[in-house]
Amino acid sequence: MATIYREIEIDCSLDKAWDQLRDFGNAARLFAGVLADCQEASGERTVTFNNGYVVQE
Predict the structure, then answer these.
(1) What's the N-to-C CA distance of the chain in angstroms?
(2) H/E element holding 19?
(3) Label partner for 19 (CA 20 to 30 A): which of 12, 27, 30, 55?
(4) Half-sphere exposure (Cβ direction) of 32: Cα atoms closer than 13 Å
(5) Residue 35: its H or E element
(6) How far is CA 40 from the centre of its chain?
(7) What's the whole-number mean pLDDT along residues 2-20?
């Protein structure tokens, strides 16, 4: 299994950051530039990276 680590500094409060990160289906918007799409179905998330690679979480 692959693991990707990417560190990004953002200027916002911790409460706002965690509220956004808790939104399971919101990954594509949060990680724009890395993810092209994010779909949620039956508690699983399918993410599509900008390079076309698709991963089910």
Answers:
(1) 11
(2) helix 14-21
(3) 55
(4) 2
(5) strand 35-41
(6) 11
(7) 85
